[in-house]
Write a structure and sequence with these properties.
The protein is of the alpha/beta class. The chain folds into 2 domains: 115-229, no CATH class; 290-657, Alpha/Beta hydrolase fold, catalytic domain (Rossmann fold, 3-Layer(aba) Sandwich), CATH 3.40.50.1820. It is built from 21 helices and 17 strands. The chain has helices at 2-5, 56-59, 76-103, 115-127, 130-155, 177-180, 182-203, 210-226, 237-246, 249-264, 337-343, 365-384, 396-411, 440-453, 458-467, 470-483, 492-498, 505-517, 556-560, 605-610, 620-630; strands spanning 290-295, 299-304, 310-312, 316-319, 348-353, 389-394, 416-422, 455-456, 503-504, 528-529, 532-533, 543-548, 570-575, 594-596, 613-615, 634-636, 649-650. It has an 11-stranded mixed β-sheet with strand order 15-14-13-12-7-6-4-5-2-1-17, with helices on both faces. Helix 19 (556-560) links the parallel strand 12 and strand 13 (570-575). Helix 10 (249-264) packs across helix 16 (470-483). The protein is globular and about 80 Å long. Residues 1-69 and 104-110 have low confidence and may be disordered. InterPro entries: AB_hydrolase_1, AB_hydrolase_fold, PHA/PHB_synthase, PHA_synth_I, PhaC_N. Residues 1-39, 48-60 have a biased composition (Low complexity). One of its GO terms (molecular function) is acyltransferase activity.
């Protein structure tokens, strides 16, 4: 990859001037794909002068940034101040690193991700069929020769179709220079050809076990993404232009940003994705009015203030995942599912999970069941007088909800009248790319870390999720923060994404081993919680299953398998976009469509989708119609704290404000 990105380029023909990158207008920075605002169209490139003298740099195929009209020399005072600051902060970081090394056991981690064995097995398979490898190499060099010829033709003033094009929606190459400048077009296509070659070689290794093949494919893509020419200042036209315009001050600022991120991570790089200073929980994020009406060691129960005189008789209980914080469903008033549900007549209760420390290391999955949904149901009955509720589980919260429903079915507890699952996996046979991190070697490494601290660090979970969308959640910020030297833009979704939570050791080990690795939840009697063997087939109440088409955490076809696990009526709905944006999609946003199928659910998800109807806009109104149809009875609105449970404090409570670093 690196060879392709730095390959020599064809020389320009005499008298032909290569267009400098500085002459291409700068498009706006893009947010990550999950939550990006619509991009503004870049302005057209500035026209070439009618009569330009030949440029020696251009004759060698190098963009003539030094001759660009906006080029200026760096300010010596700025350089001096920045380098002095870098030296001082760098010295502190090195001292901190050495201190931490001295506290370790002296044994380096040899291969914590168990990558070496997977690639060794792939290499062995490839060597068993050398003819296939030679064929791939010949095809690669033929394409590369065509690229050279096309680039030479363009430099001579001709036209040539691209040998390879980036995939649709690839924002890395949004700058006009990647198409209009022959040099950068060559660099881009050279990289794309190399990427395709590596990917084809990996896929050509026959006979690999599925898990090994998945791991090799995943880390090959990680390498390919890391080697993109957009990630290096010398091969990124936008960065070169910025460097010319600022006299290199962008790189100095980027170095300062890099040091700041290392300081935030105490020596480990913690990329700053948003301006965290612009957000404060309870003031401009998670602001739907309500009260904490119950608290135990694992959760605070929030009851939200009604906005209507009459409300539905059945309260609504929401179980969010404890891998992240609940306010993903209450970011801002305009995209808050909580606020919208309140406006639709629901008495909304939300479990706000504690951010655990070492004192909760022995909390298990059954503790989360007892102190989560069971405790919440008891509290809701005290607060409202109602036994039955409608329940929602989001992601891991949905896995807990399904487990609890199976437990309740065995014990004859009917307090949940209907259940909704947001992007939830119950059958983990095809767990998507998260399965790359679940093998015996990696589980043992995770458990060893948790045994020392009593929990898994929230940052480690966040790093795993970010790797699933490396271009959007890692490399785009490397370019923006460190190469362009820009300050992060304030973005509520990215603030939430960075507000990571810890995982208790006992619970997390159980979840990874029994759910992900062994897939025991779908086996009748495969899991026992609080002395009761679970069988999802015992769940007979109405269920609503929402999946999202581009979900990289809970693949929609895996979520669809819930339709064959429960014995009651199931409505499956597929939303566009991903794990977060597909769920947090207010009807007012006008974004993303959804698919419904009014017929019986076939066994295969592809058959369901083939017969489904696509509807514009949010799925929220569809869910509202479904849940209201379960029971339309209305009662006078209930105010938090006016029932048998007094208000303890204002929403969003205290637990949600505990940061992973606290």
């Amino acid at each position: 990859m690196a060879v392709a990105a730095s390959s020599p380029v064809p020389a320009a023909a005499p008298g032909k001037v290569a267009r400098p990158a500085a002459e291409v207008s700068k498009p706006p920075a893009a947010a990550p794909a999950e939550a990006a605002a619509p991009e503004a169209k870049p302005e057209p490139a500035a026209p070439q002068p009618a009569a330009a003298a030949p440029d020696p740099a251009a004759a060698k195929g190098v963009p003539a940034l030094a001759e660009a009209p906006n080029f200026r020399l760096p300010d010596p005072a700025v350089v001096s101040r920045t380098m002095a600051d870098v030296a001082e902060r760098g010295q502190r970081l090195v001292a901190e690193f050495l201190r931490r090394q001295g506290q370790g056991d002296g044994r380096p981690a040899t291969d914590p991700l168990n990558i070496g064995g997977a690639f060794l097995e792939m290499t062995t398979r490839l060597m068993s069929n050398p003819a296939r490898l030679v064929q791939a190499q010949i095809g690669f060099w033929q394409d590369y020769l065509t690229l050279w010829q096309n680039t030479a033709r363009r430099i001579m003033g001709g036209q040539a179709s691209p040998v390879i094009a980036e995939r649709r929606g690839d924002k890395r190459f949004k700058d006009d220079a990647w198409r209009e400048n022959e040099v950068f077009d060559f660099i881009k296509q050279s990289y794309l050809l190399s990427s395709r070659y590596f990917t084809n070689v990996v896929h050509g290794a026959e006979g690999l076990p599925p898990k090994t093949a998945q791991k090799v494919d995943f880390y090959t893509r990680q390498f390919v993404d890391a080697m993109s020419p957009t990630n290096f200042w010398m091969t990124n036209p936008e960065v070169l232009r910025k460097t010319a315009e600022t006299g290199g001050e962008n790189l100095l600022k980027g170095l300062s940003n890099l040091l700041s991120d290392l300081e935030r991570g105490h020596g480990k790089l913690r990329i700053n994705m948003t301006d965290e200073s612009k957000f404060k929980i309870g003031e401009n994020i998670a602001v739907t009015p309500g009260k904490v009406v119950y608290r135990n060691a694992l959760m605070e129960l929030i009851q939200y203030t009604p906005t209507n005189d009459k409300v539905l008789k059945r309260p609504l209980l929401i179980l969010p995942p404890w891998i992240n914080k609940f306010y993903i469903l209450d970011l801002r008033p305009k995209n808050s599912f909580v606020r919208w549900a309140v406006s639709q007549g629901h008495t909304v209760f939300v479990c706000s999970w504690v951010n655990p420390d070492e004192s909760l290391a022995e909390m298990g999955f059954d503790d989360y069941m007892r102190l989560g949904p069971y405790a919440a149901l008891d509290a809701i009955e005290q607060a409202t007088g109602e036994r039955q509720v409608n329940a929602i589980g989001y992601c891991l919260g949905g896995t807990l909800l399904a487990s609890t429903l199976a437990h309740m079915a065995k014990t004859g507890d009917d307090r949940v009248a209907s259940a909704t699952f947001f992007t939830t996996m119950l059958d983990f046979e095809e767990a998507g790319e998260l399965g790359v991190f679940i093998d015996e070697e990696q589980l043992q490494a995770i458990e060893a870390k948790m045994s020392q601290r009593g929990f898994l660090e929230g940052s480690e979970m966040a790093d795993t999720f970010n790797m699933l969308r490396a271009n959007d959640l890692i490399w785009s910020f490397v370019v923006q923060n460190y190469l362009l030297g820009q300050e992060p833009f304030p973005f509520d979704l990215l603030f939430w994404n960075g507000d990571s939570t810890r995982m208790p050791a006992k619970m997390h080990s159980f979840y990874l081993r029994r759910m992900y690795q062994q897939n025991d939840l779908v086996k009748p009697g495969g899991i026992e919680l609080d002395g009761v063997s679970l069988d999802l087939r015992d769940v007979k109440l109405p269920t609503y299953v929402l999946a999202t088409r581009e979900d990289h955490i809970a693949p929609w076809k895996s979520s669809y398998r819930a339709t064959g696990l429960f014995s009651g009526p199931v409505r499956f709905v597929l939303a566009a976009s991903g794990h977060i944006a597909g769920v947090v999609n207010s009807p007012d946003s006008g974004k993303y469509s959804h698919w419904v199928n009014e017929g019986p659910s076939p066994q295969q998800p592809g058959d369901w989708f083939e017969a489904a109807t696509e509807l514009a806009g949010s799925w929220w109104p569809d869910w509202q119609r479904w849940v209201v149809a379960q029971d339309r009875t209305m009662v006078p609105a209930r105010q938090p704290g006016e029932g048998a449970l007094p208000a303890l404090e204002d929403a969003p409570g205290s637990y949600v404000k505990v940061m992973a670093g606290d």
